[in-house]
Design a protein that fits this description.
The structure holds 2 protein chains of 2 kinds. Chain A is about 80% helix and about 0% strand. Chain A is elongated and about 75 Å long. Chain A is mainly α. Chain A has helices at about 5-35, 40-60, 60-70, 85-105, 110-130, 135-170, 175-200, 210-235, 245-290, 300-330, 335-355, 360-375, 385-415, and one strand spanning about 380. By secondary structure, chain B is mainly alpha-helical. Chain B has one domain (about 15-70, about 80-225): Methane Monooxygenase Hydroxylase, Chain G, domain 1, CATH 1.20.58.220. The radius of gyration of chain B is 20 Å and the shape is elongated.
Chain lengths: ~425, ~220
């Protein structure tokens, strides 16, 4: 591989470009519900997003990165021409990045996950051969795109139903909220820690036994719950805004919970979506540095780091504007609903990330929002927009594929 | 910059506009005591001015009504049936229309309430207005019941408010019977055409309470699904 440095540099630039795009646009979706419910200020939201996106990318992003890198293309047929894989992955990055750019200019709802998967399948099927695509695992990925919103919706429905039963329908919702919100905080902290411990830490070289993991997750969950309880006890009843049931103050209590679920959502997003940008980079690096196609090489830590940095830079440069518009858009999603949607989506995404399935953060969150809606929790959901969002992936996959094929042949001419 | 799709899926909540509409409706009927007061005194200048207020408020309510209808497309997914919500809006609007009709007819015919019936008429109007106000209070709870997710204690509270609304309507019915009887006893002494229209005004004041009660029933339908 004579052009090794060039390939790696190109991959890193394209990957950084895409991670930047994800940070600029996509993160706003993940953080939308928190900004919209005015729980976090814009600055706080960006800070939280930056920290937890980065942590999610570095700690829990490894599995999905592996899937993107070598779960879709079976490169054993081209082991004599490893540069084809390099061109392909570079083309996929360019295709997905370009498609995202076009789509966000036009205002179409697209998924970064669907574009990159479409792009990789596209170059592999046309650029290499139809058999080079691992259709079975692509099938699993596509199935996960249908299942993840449904699962998130179901969890959100159940979560919000428990909120109704335990808090909202009681005679004293405020004291019930003060009692139960720390419990939700424990579960959120416990769950995210556990998944990270099981799936993430091996990339940073720490390994714990199963019992140690459960113990540590419990401790972290408890610590979070106690911190939450302290904040909740500081919330004063607002006599101006309240009527018989103190719902305005109840929402403030849930607001504390939502700060946490916003963190989990940012973490989940980082764990899943950063892989879209760095998966192909990892593939290029592994081929370029060894000169051969190996399926086993571990993901280098700095690749995940690159993705994390890209997302944070995107957030810092454009995220503010996007989040501002988002915050103005959502005013009807109160913290008691927003938390249910976020926690359900984050749980689904983190578990999917743990098993290496690249799911769409946006679609999962939309599924969760619908789940809350079905539990009669949201005043009005615009089903036309929901339909557009879900329709978008039908066009996104082929669009990513076609662009990737075009870029693949162009790159092969230029570089080859 | 890309528009955000998560925020786009939240439609405009119909609850606050509905409450704003009801507030306009109640402001409109609240002008009626001043109007009756002026007409009993025969002060048509004041009455005409108050009538203009009523017309304006009714018009504002109409504008809100149209706006709400336009913002409830078929594709909106809500915890309540869209048809029930639109029905509630229509019934709310009828209360304001009734206030406009009453004042319009009285101005048009320069109708004077006989002095002997003045006090009774004001009492009757007050009773009907009490029902309207109770309907307004109940509609004002709507945002809380959306917040509570249509279950539990908040729903019980609304049901008890509706029970109170029904009671007020029955009370207003009783007063209506009294007013009719009093008018019947003196109708021979009045010009017959005036009497016909006085009965009509009594009917319409009764309708204010009836329509208010209907607002309560619509709310009950919203809650029961």
């Amino acid at each position: 591989m004579e052009y090794m440095t060039l390939y790696i540099a190109l991959a890193a630039i394209f990957g950084l470009f895409m991670a930047w795009g994800i940070g600029a646009n996509d993160v706003a979706n993940a953080m939308a519900t928190s900004v919209g419910s005015r729980v976090l200020s814009l600055k706080q939201a960006i800070l939280v997003a930056a920290i937890f996106e980065f942590a999610g990318a570095v700690l829990a992003g490894g599995e999905v990165t592996s899937t993107i890198r070598n779960g879709i293309v079976d490169a054993s047929g081209i082991s004599d021409r490893p540069e084809l894989l390099v061109y392909g992955m570079l083309a996929a990055l360019l295709a997905a990045g370009t498609w995202l750019l076009i789509a966000s200019r036009k205002g179409w709802p697209v998924s970064t996950t669907h574009s990159i998967v479409g792009a990789i399948v596209g170059f592999a099927a046309v650029g290499i051969s139809i058999e080079a695509v691992k259709w079975a695992s692509v099938g699993t990925i596509v199935t996960s795109w249908i299942i993840s919103p449904v699962v998130a919706g179901t969890i959100a429905f159940l979560l919000f139903t428990t909120v109704q039963k335990l808090v909202l329908e009681r005679r004293d919702p405020l004291s019930q909220a003060r009692r139960w919100v720390p419990v939700y905080m424990f579960f959120a902290g416990f769950l995210i820690t556990l998944v990270t411990l099981f799936k993430g830490l091996k990339h940073v070289g720490v390994s714990l036994s199963e019992e140690q993991s459960y113990l540590l997750a419990t401790i972290i969950g408890l610590v979070i719950a106690i911190i939450g309880k302290i904040f909740i006890s500081r919330i004063k009843v607002d006599p101006e805004a309240d009527r018989a049931f103190h719902f305005a103050t109840v929402e403030k209590v849930f607001g504390v919970l939502m700060v946490l679920t916003a963190c989990t959502m940012a973490f989940a997003h980082g764990s899943n979506d950063v892989a879209n940008a760095v998966g192909p980079v990892a593939a290029v690096i592994s081929v370029a540095s060894s000169g051969e196609i190996s399926q086993q090489a571990p993901i280098s830590f700095w690749v995940l780091l690159l993705g994390g940095i890209g997302i944070v830079v995107g957030l810092a440069t454009f995220g503010k504007e996007v989040m501002k518009t988002v915050g103005e858009g959502i005013t009807h999603l109160t913290p008691s609903r927003g938390f249910a949607a976020e926690l359900a989506a984050a749980t689904t995404i983190v578990v999917a990330s743990g098993t290496g399935l690249p799911v769409s953060t946006t679609h999962t969150l939309v599924g969760a929002v619908l789940g809350v809606g079905i539990a009669r929790g949201i005043a009005a959901i615009n089903l036309a927009v929901v339909r557009d969002i879900f329709m978008s992936w039908i066009i996104t996959v082929p669009a990513g594929a076609v662009l990737a094929i075009i870029f693949f042949f162009i790159l092969r001419v230029i570089l080859g | 910059m890309a528009k955000n799709f998560i925020s786009a899926i939240f439609g405009r909540s119909p609850v606050h506009p509905l409450q704003q509409h009801m507030a306009k409706v109640i402001a409109c009927v609240e002008e009626l005591p001043a109007f009756f007061d002026a007409s009993i005194r025969g002060d048509w200048e004041t009455a005409t001015r108050v009538r203009e207020n009523i017309r304006q408020l009714e018009h504002d309510a109409d504008t809100l009504k149209i706006d709400i209808r336009l913002h409830l497309p078929n594709t909106l997914f809500m915890p309540v049936a869209r048809a029930d919500l639109l029905d509630l809006l229509t019934v709310q609007d009828r209360v304001a229309n009734k206030a406009k009709d009453i004042s319009g007819l009285m101005i048009g015919r320069q109708m004077r309430i006989p002095q002997e019936l003045g006090v009774m008429f004001m009492k009757f109007l007050d009773g009907a207005l009490a029902a309207c106000r109770q309907a307004h209070t109940t509609v004002n709870e709507l945002d809380e019941v959306f917040e509570a997710g249509f279950r539990g204690a908040e729903v019980d509270l609304i049901h008890s408010m509706i029970t109170e609304l029904d009671r007020l309507e029955r009370e207003s019915d009783h007063v209506e019977i009294e007013v009719r009887r009093a008018l019947f006893e003196m109708e021979k002494t009045l010009p017959p055409v005036d009497v016909v229209f006085l009965y009509k005004i009594i009917d319409w004041i009764g309708d204010l309470a009836d329509e208010s009660e209907r607002i309560g029933s619509r709310l009950q339908l919203l809650l029961a699904r």
